[in-house]
Amino acid sequence: MRPLTDPDPGSGPDPGPDPTASRPDALADLVAGRPAPPEADFGGPALERRSISEQVAGRILGMIKSGNLRPGDKLPTEAQMTVALGISRPPLREALKALTIMGVLESRQGGRYTVTDLSPSRLVAPFNVMLSVAHYDLHEHFESRSIVDVALVRFCTQRASAEMRQRIMKLAVDGRSFHRDPVAFRLLDSEFHQALNTGARNGMLSAMAQGLYDVGLDVRRVASAMAGVIETSVRQHVEVAEAIVARDEDAAAAAIWRHLAHVRDSTIQSMAQMPHP
Length: 277
Known about the structure:
Structural class: mainly alpha
Number of helices: 13
Largest sheet: 2 strands, antiparallel
Strand content: under 5%
């Protein structure tokens, strides 16, 4: 594997493999100079200088998805990884922090990171990295949401239990009490969309939808305080819920599409009102 390129190539010589490791892993093999099987590579060419931390996180996730890193595996020390990857500590630490926030890694005493369980929601967690990407494209974001959420609403209409349909309807109607309380409405909104995802009974799509929902939340907090935004969202929630209860798949899909268009448009308006650096 070719080393990563970084203006500050680390802070010291190779300290060698950590003798406390429970068993060798792919990164430790690289550091120690041991031959590794082809699949132990991070999965791509040397990383570009732009967004080094994001690319490091992506490579570690790639190793996890391929099975090279498994639940309970310990990553090498930070010093070892900077040598193996040819980068400085700041972008490495940023990547490790992001993966820890996602729940993919956890930090143990002594500074070693361990791979956690690999649930679908964690394996699609790279969506959360988008929160820190400067080149956020709102139209691509909502284009993606429309594809995923419309599919989930169709599945929900087909598969949701009677109890889940009742919960979806109750959450939609309860929103009428929060027209003047943006904080409470945002909580209810999250529960409503999660109920749609749960009713669809597709864990991977639901995890993708949650990741897309989480992108841009700071901007949508501003949008929810704009006049009329909550009232429109609540009305549209009720339309979605009524179609699901009636088992009208096409009507439910059309209603959620209208709702996402409203969320997109109100987000655009709120972004225009936000101060620019």
